[in-house]
Amino acid sequence: MVMITLAGIRNEHWRRQLGGGQAVSPKYARLYITRGVQHHPRGAEALRKLLTCPPQIDPAVNPWGDCDLLKVVLDGETFYLKADCFARSWNPCEASEDPANDERTTRVYTCMLASEY
User: Fold this and answer.
1) pLDDT tens digits, the chain, 117 residues: what are they?
2) Domain range summary for the chain, segments of one domain joined by +
3) Cα 59 from chain centroid (whole Å)
4) Rounded CA gap, 68 and 80, in Å?
5) Bridge pairing between strands 29-33 and 105-113
6) Pairwise CA distance, residues 105 & 86, whole Å
7) Which of 32, 4, 36, 21 is nearest to 116 (CA)?
8) What are phi and psi of 59, to 5 degrees?
9) pTM over 0.70
């Protein structure tokens, strides 16, 4: 079994916030939807499933175990929700190597087709 890291736990927290329709400060999380998903007839359904599905800790889906990549397949089309963590500051004294640090990390969630990855 793959363990979920602190970063993954934090990503899951913000994914649930977004999926629950709660307004999340852009300081913490941003959501981007690629053109492929925007124009796909099942794109909205895929995004809903990705935001509300349980954590995927299957090593075949997410070998890192930190919930950075979620996957759903609808009618043979694969959709991903990818979480990336960025330091909020370019100043090394203000940046953090710990992506679970909410005060210094911005999470970016990208919903995309597998073909766009």
Assistant:
1) 455 677 777 888 888 888 888 877 777 778 999 999 999 999 999 999 999 888 777 677 666 666 788 899 999 999 999 988 877 777 777 766 777 777 778 888 999 999 998
2) 6-116
3) 17
4) 10
5) parallel
6) 6
7) 36
8) -60, -25
9) yes
